[in-house]
Fold each of these.
Amino acid sequence: TAGTITGTTNIDPLPSWNEGPLKTNILNFVTESIDSSGENFITVEDRVAVFDNDGTLWSEQPVYFQFFFAMDQVRGMAATHPAWSKTEPYKSVINHDLKSLMAQGEKGLMKILGTSHSGMTSTEFENMVTKWIDTAVHPLEKKKYKDLVFLPMIELIRFLQDHDYTVYIVSGGETAFMRPWVTEAYGIPRDRVIGSNLKLEFQWQGDEPVLMRLPAVEFNDDGVGKPMSIDRIIGRKPVAAFGNSDGDLPMLQWTASNPKYKSLMMIVHHTDSTREFAYDRESKIGRLDKALDWAKEHQWYLMDMQKDWKVVYKP
Amino acid sequence: TAGTITGTTNIDPLPSWNEGPLKTNILNFVTESIDSSGENFITVEDRVAVFDNDGTLWSEQPVYFQFFFAMDQVRGMAATHPAWSKTEPYKSVINHDLKSLMAQGEKGLMKILGTSHSGMTSTEFENMVTKWIDTAVHPLEKKKYKDLVFLPMIELIRFLQDHDYTVYIVSGGETAFMRPWVTEAYGIPRDRVIGSNLKLEFQWQGDEPVLMRLPAVEFNDDGVGKPMSIDRIIGRKPVAAFGNSDGDLPMLQWTASNPKYKSLMMIVHHTDSTREFAYDRESKIGRLDKALDWAKEHQWYLMDMQKDWKVVYKP
Ligand SMILES: [Ca+2]
Ligand SMILES: [Ca+2]
């Protein structure tokens, strides 16, 4: 493995990152971790890196993209549900009135999520997501959602994988929503996606067993849920963790407590209102407040989108 | 990959299996699956095989070995809990009176499981299991539990892995109980172990984050739970599934419904009272009744331990 980095030293593995201490630190961390003669060597099986998704690998404003998916599904179903044009919260969704929908609080949002995410089989849902991600466009950015992924982070994933890191997504979003497209978007295989889950029911449709998606959350993979799912599914403490909000703090703390290795904790700080969005402590979506204090106190790395990223989105 | 099998045709990959139609069928399935010019070719990423653990990869009589572990832990704790010598269900455990314990029904068993499995951190539990598996001995077989693994199945796992199959354990036993020893015992890595789970709680012990194990089941990975966890964690329908009881039937049915590939469903039939144990339809542990009928009706393969296995345990 030591040969790998030697062979690539002349090619910048992170071309979308501006030169500076942050980039140098990432390069040094990985270089040291594969040097079997150094004190910071990490065995291949322990090279586990975890990435949050929303706000870390792609944008998440003005609402999580999975919620745009939910609203698009409801609008697609509206023709066969004529009563919705007069019934909230569907009416606001059909009228593209996000403000009015938000004003209805969590109950309205849950109804939209339930209607769009349950009552179909896991296979049917996968097909819905695949169709949506291939065609749907973000209302503000006017780009496909799958093009609103952060190129610097994709380079970082690839750089880690090229040095025998096993890279997982550990997200509050639903596993079944991410799985259909993350391989193409990020180069992360289907079985390395950990997220929230709905309850399922094993049913027969004629001779065919199916998993029916029920309108109930089985596991919420956010906050303290993240170290739990890491322990349950990966079974190793990561050596590197990347997030962007308070919901990632326990995952970052868990990684920082790795007893065997020096670990790498990094937070995407959304500082770029021109190229993306600027938000942190006061944001409803992707609030970065406690984790920002903690990061500063513990010398974790803040990726300042404006300063550190030469490019934001894939061109 | 086609070269792999050519290079090994002279060496029997399944030496502990008797010659016969069953062994031939296994060899043919794998050989065809890696032949990219044939109609039964399976792409590498779809080569997913799932194995039940108790009764499929190691023995499970007279009770699941995880329950022997539980009783051993309780006995180890007895010195610091003097009242237990007069209190059921602990008294029966301390006296090695399995019959009296069983007579107390599920409530007694749950108490023993709760006492032995919760109230410690995930790391502490891992250490308990590691210590136990390295030393504990089966009361009837007079061998270490880790030596009561089925050599023919280990050869089969290795054979599949050698042909780029990704092999998972999908067991009703607890993930955290299997993970510490399955790599040494079966050659299956830690992150390919799917099982039942206890609820966890993220806590701080001083500066150290820990996951505390709570006395409550979060997910029961048995019966219909198996296709659910396969869908949630693997995200692909298997092409091969191996089990031994009615609790594996939904997993086998799920695998049989693979829409893209010819799949392989096999059941270990415990027919050998001399070398192991003989049981099926009437057994409390590992009951094989509905799945036996279903297997016969659907021409799934029954591995007849007495006839098909030249060797049972690792020598
Ligand atoms: Ca996030
Ligand atoms: Ca079993």
Note: Chain A touches chain B at residues 45, 122, 166, 175, 179, 189-191, 193, 197, 200-202, 208-209, 211, 218-219, 224, 227-228, 231-236, 250, 253-254, 257 (CB under 8 Å).
Amino acid sequence: MSERKEFRTLVSLEDAKKALIPFYKRDIEEVPLNECYNRVLARNVYSRVDVPGFDRASMDGFAVKAKDTWGADEESPRPLRIKGIIHAGDKPDISVEPSTAVEIATGAVMPRGANAVVMVENTDTSGEDVNVRKPVSPGENVMHTGADIMMGELALRAGTRLTSREISVLAAVGLDRVAVYKKPRVGIISTGNELMMPGTILEPGQIYDVNAYAVGAGVIENGGEPVYLGIIRDVYEDFQKAVVEATKKYDIVVTSGSTSAGASDMMFSTVGSFGKVLVHGIKIKPGKPTIIGEANDRPFIGLPGYPSSAITIFNEVVAPMIRHMSGYPEKARREVTARMAVRVRSEGGREVLLPVGLINEKDALSAYPIEKGSGAVSSLLDADGYIEISEDTHVIDEGDKVSVKLFSEEITFPDLLMIGSHCLGIDIITEMMSEKGYTVRSINVGSMGGFRAIRKGIADAAGVHLLDESGVYNEPFLRSLNVEDAVLIKGYVREQGLILPKGNPSGIKGLEDLPGKQFINRTKGSGTRTLLDMELKKIAEGRGTTLQVLTESIPGYDVEAKTHNAVASAILMGKADAGLGIKTVAEQNGLDFIPLRDEEYDFVVKASSMNKPAVIAFMDILRSAEFKKRIAELGYKPQA
Amino acid sequence: MSERKEFRTLVSLEDAKKALIPFYKRDIEEVPLNECYNRVLARNVYSRVDVPGFDRASMDGFAVKAKDTWGADEESPRPLRIKGIIHAGDKPDISVEPSTAVEIATGAVMPRGANAVVMVENTDTSGEDVNVRKPVSPGENVMHTGADIMMGELALRAGTRLTSREISVLAAVGLDRVAVYKKPRVGIISTGNELMMPGTILEPGQIYDVNAYAVGAGVIENGGEPVYLGIIRDVYEDFQKAVVEATKKYDIVVTSGSTSAGASDMMFSTVGSFGKVLVHGIKIKPGKPTIIGEANDRPFIGLPGYPSSAITIFNEVVAPMIRHMSGYPEKARREVTARMAVRVRSEGGREVLLPVGLINEKDALSAYPIEKGSGAVSSLLDADGYIEISEDTHVIDEGDKVSVKLFSEEITFPDLLMIGSHCLGIDIITEMMSEKGYTVRSINVGSMGGFRAIRKGIADAAGVHLLDESGVYNEPFLRSLNVEDAVLIKGYVREQGLILPKGNPSGIKGLEDLPGKQFINRTKGSGTRTLLDMELKKIAEGRGTTLQVLTESIPGYDVEAKTHNAVASAILMGKADAGLGIKTVAEQNGLDFIPLRDEEYDFVVKASSMNKPAVIAFMDILRSAEFKKRIAELGYKPQA
């Protein structure tokens, strides 16, 4: 242990960014016009042609000398002799003399001698003449040579991002190749003995490589081109070779992982051996074990191993460099202002980037912290972005305004946030809400977590099914858990029981048979687990022992499934002999079921959310005949 | 003329969109994980694995039985015998017995018998023992099997757009191929005898094809894949063949152009011959001559020829279909709320999509109409989006709130809007403003247009150099043009004169020699043109004639260049024998110059803009030593 190194010279996030500034540079390449979408123009474009390149009719009608039409009106139309016709694309060999006209199409070349066009709607023809019923002034319905863009004019400025309208201008001035900033090529390496490529089969101890794909998507989003260089084990020579080769070929090299103390030592000394370490770690949470170095005059960034940390540091440190190189505007991500839904504490002493979820409130966004462990990939889905808490900030109060940096431009925030117990009925609600144009985010944390989320004011609604010792569902917990300013809305009745493999090979007859059988449990605080514990406690008491002793005799009692379906899957896969869950899920999966009791699945709704359009829509759905029909199909019963 | 057809059965924009709904469908394809960025998930993803797949240490430290640490503190650490070490990726063959510990790295498999990890910071080692200085509870610093994502759990829902965070989850559950909605392939055809590909040389009457590239960029932006099928002439057989072939190969076929009365007849009858015409035109401005049809069960949309009309109808009618097919959210474009800067009238009787520019005001956006002819491509650059004016709306008042549909997601609005005369000094101001972080949009409409833009309240500032009959610059026009609530800020002095080809081959000595020479003029209302007309008027009077007669003897007097550079270019290219402009531009282009008089180039600033940060920065720049130095380099003189 003694040779392990702590990160001794942590720098601020700001200084970490500054360490990379020497590598901010831009290369230029020419691309075909039809491939320049979303690229950034690298040079000013001066038009080499006039647009249009000739005096052009801008209406269908007749090219005339304006003077010849003066005085014309509906009563006394002016007849002009038609001398011919000019179509768009024709090179006209015809001219307009006094008292004559030439039929002309939109976009066609104006004939010599004509200085205006009478719209076809203001004429009629009789024999060889056209009768003009409305006068025109010189230049009317004519676009002069260069009136749109003149030869020599600055048509587009360097630095412009090319969207449909800029590309239109490039086409109009005749460019078929466009000078744009080169997308930096970013070599992406994942390091770690535990990593495997998605699509392979894992052995114990292995996990799939996530960071390569997360970083690759981030590279694209910021204007770069990712190159996936695969997984490198924690072997000095392999790592050195991979990084040295990569810095020769790519503009930027990003690795991730191997930042646990032992492996990161290896990285430090390796980078030191072939290049220069610029930053030894950042005074920030998460992301402390970040390495910045250089080799072959190219920057090298070693990101932390946890995906959420890796993405955060990538966004803060690497993305601005990629954006500069590709000419994108400096501001990396959309920021939105929101109000904190709860009080947040920080230890202080280092900057904290706190992941938050966002929810649409009546006229503002509300932010709530995402508190899963930093190792959880799924927490990325619940978080929409993060807030920066400075070193000296210790508390952000409920209601304080915060600026949230979004993880992605494409994020849309839910209209309804449900945090609580999982139920198939919530999937139906989500679907029916979506048909009404509302988006729902539902986070499964069990009934107890649901009550807490309402108490804290985070969630709009929570699905709950908690049984009180007195045998009453849900309602007593509003008081016992101090959930104020909330309304309990009765939902429906589900049948809970034991889910067993088809044919019940272990011959389980009830909860009393669980000891010695491989069990799969549900999340702590979930209604299902609470029910299980109440029933097991009765059995334990009957046997003159305690709940703890009884549960220690049930292997797998500690394994927590977050959803009913996950329980069914574990049993289908042979990973467990039994689990507790609802009848519907057992039936859907063709599994055996021993009923234990009916339970009441209800919704706790935050009082201040009751007027939100999304909550009104939610309540309408709960009351609707369609919802009742669809939950009946699931085998649920309406509330008595 | 008699056989020409007017569009008789115009439908509303809403009905035009509805005509395409039968073609809204979605196909699914599988793509590799590293190519799914920004695609939309087509099927629910249920995890086939537990994440993590084993009980995992979430910190560097020692795996222990929690009980063995209870009671430990700084004074009385608990010694545990170290039984070995487990690295990330190891398959451990080791177990923790009472009073023992196993060293463990973040991400490594927990050994049998251990139920918690003591962080390395809370330990020290002595010989074969580790001394634990802080107790842990069961499960502390351990992530249990499936705690992140459990086998069978719904990891991602169909319909989710895949950004970095969703891709992280797909990788974590081990997917290497992802079912996404297929990007619809859109065949793009341009029609018209006048069209040529960019990169070719134009002959008289020809213009470059703009719409193919504008539409192609729009297809990408909305999630589709453009296929460029080239230019088809207005020939029945060619058009029929191209469209029939395209509808066999592509999901959607978009043509543009050939919508002038004669050509569109051809299109109608052609589409009728091989398919079905669904819509004969839309009751909207711009975009009336739009055709919607079907052939081979595929939709066919014929857009108008003018680029701004084509893009508008594409956005309204075609983009929603492409978005549906690729699974993108229905809302095609960002909408922003703005206040109209000026009163706008509409004829009524049909819906109008009015292009507007947007400008950042103190706490809101302000929208001003873009009034260039619909044939101008450059007008696309000045417009940021458009507002929808319904059939029955005749007036939108100044200050009314309007909803602006943006042309592109990537648009950013300028902080300072300058509308007026063009000057090289404005390019310097733009550059210096950009260094201060402010964006400037400058629209060149001449001095008179600048005064008008300030009077209407559209622009923040206008560069002007208008000479009064009394010989005073700019100031008298505030009164004579009724420009109220504005401030005149003195700028600098420029030298105006005749720009001539090098060596002055025509031997021009002054304005009196212009008759009979090919001239290039500036925009009506520009200060340069006003100065020219004042001087020419004196000459005409001296010769006993009128200005009009004199100018009729100067070929090219009607040709309007929008910038000084454009004048110089025309002379360099041999297109003109003389033009009026500033000395600086003549010198920069190596052209001859005959001075006429010094003129005062000043800025009119809208009074209500004076407190805008961007205007304050602009005023600072005008006063700065750097600006004075840089305009001196251009040959301008500071104001006396």
Note: The first strand of chain A starts at residue 28 and ends at 32.
